[in-house]
């Protein structure tokens, strides 16, 4: 689904060139759940923005669902992004003046879905996230965990082929963070492809594959044999 080949990203700082991504080759299959872990400043958000088509590489190639993105126009990239990718952010990024339902409807507006269908789909998504009764609330009337549920409902609204989550539990207390992580795991079990960015090992171990970034390079890429499936958790509880 995702094919990044030798992707670099650099910025000019005066006469210097700052290399943020230094030749990232990363292939992610449909249905996978990949954590990208690395210390602050290692390039995680830059990589996520690249995968999310919010930013384009300086060099290298990126193919998403068979579509080569390098030569596409900004409009073409926006259209592809709106159709294929759902985003979840650390600070939720809900629009404060809109209700929960209206926030969930936003990506469907971009996708050109008619109003009645949008409203129904938004309600379905909120129900799926346990927020069916909160559609008329503004973000400020919701707890952090509830706001992140709304943000996840919004990410799911267009049935994206890919969900990108950048530190999705970073602004939540640990109990609420675990709940949100469990939701993300469930989405993966239902077939959603997930890329989760984190600086925290305890969070990364929830993924099926853990890619470690250091100074803009991938320094390890491991299948996580320890990912706890519900069955294994049950075995653990019984033994
Ligand atoms: P992480 O998410 O792992 O903390 P980032 O991808 O946000 O890392 O940033 C990696 C490095 O790139 C940092 O040193 C940051 O200052 C730099 N950087 C990010 N965006 C820009 C930009 N637009 N211009 C210049 N430098 C940037
Ligand atoms: Mg970051």
From TrEMBL:
<feature type="domain" description="ABC transporter">
    <location>
        <begin position="2"/>
        <end position="238"/>
    </location>
</feature>
<protein>
    <submittedName>
        <fullName>ATP-binding cassette domain-containing protein</fullName>
    </submittedName>
</protein>
<dbReference type="InterPro" id="IPR017871">
    <property type="entry name" value="ABC_transporter-like_CS"/>
</dbReference>
<dbReference type="GO" id="GO:0005524">
    <property type="term" value="F:ATP binding"/>
</dbReference>
<dbReference type="Pfam" id="PF00005">
    <property type="entry name" value="ABC_tran"/>
</dbReference>
<keyword id="KW-0813">Transport</keyword>
<dbReference type="InterPro" id="IPR003593">
    <property type="entry name" value="AAA+_ATPase"/>
</dbReference>
<dbReference type="InterPro" id="IPR003439">
    <property type="entry name" value="ABC_transporter-like_ATP-bd"/>
</dbReference>
<dbReference type="InterPro" id="IPR017911">
    <property type="entry name" value="MacB-like_ATP-bd"/>
</dbReference>
<dbReference type="InterPro" id="IPR015854">
    <property type="entry name" value="ABC_transpr_LolD-like"/>
</dbReference>
<keyword id="KW-0067">ATP-binding</keyword>
<keyword id="KW-0547">Nucleotide-binding</keyword>
<dbReference type="InterPro" id="IPR027417">
    <property type="entry name" value="P-loop_NTPase"/>
</dbReference>
């Amino acid at each position: 689904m995702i094919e990044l080949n030798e992707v670099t990203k650099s910025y000019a700082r005066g006469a210097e060139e700052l290399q943020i991504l230094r030749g990232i080759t990363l292939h992610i299959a449909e249905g996978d759940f990949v954590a990208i872990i690395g210390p602050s400043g290692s390039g995680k958000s830059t990589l996520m923005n690249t995968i999310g088509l919010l930013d384009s590489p300086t060099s290298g190639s990126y193919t998403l669902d068979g579509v080569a993105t390098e030569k596409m126009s900004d409009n073409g990239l926006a259209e592809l992004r709106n159709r294929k990718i759902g985003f979840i952010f650390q600070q939720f990024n809900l629009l404060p003046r809109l209700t929960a339902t209206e926030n969930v409807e936003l990506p469907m507006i971009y996708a050109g879905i008619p109003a009645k269908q949008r409203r129904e789909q938004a309600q379905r998504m909120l129900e799926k996230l346990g927020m069916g009764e909160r559609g008329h609330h503004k973000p400020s009337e919701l707890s952090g965990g509830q706001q992140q549920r709304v943000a996840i409902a919004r990410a799911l609204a267009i049935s994206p082929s890919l969900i990108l989550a950048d530190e999705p539990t970073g602004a939540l207390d640990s109990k609420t963070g675990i709940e949100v992580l469990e939701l993300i795991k469930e989405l993966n079990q239902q077939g959603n492809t997930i890329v989760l960015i984190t600086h925290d090992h305890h969070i990364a171990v929830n993924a099926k594959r853990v890619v470690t970034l250091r100074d803009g390079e991938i320094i390890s890429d491991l299948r996580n044999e320890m990912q706890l499936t519900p069955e294994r958790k049950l075995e653990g509880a019984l033994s």
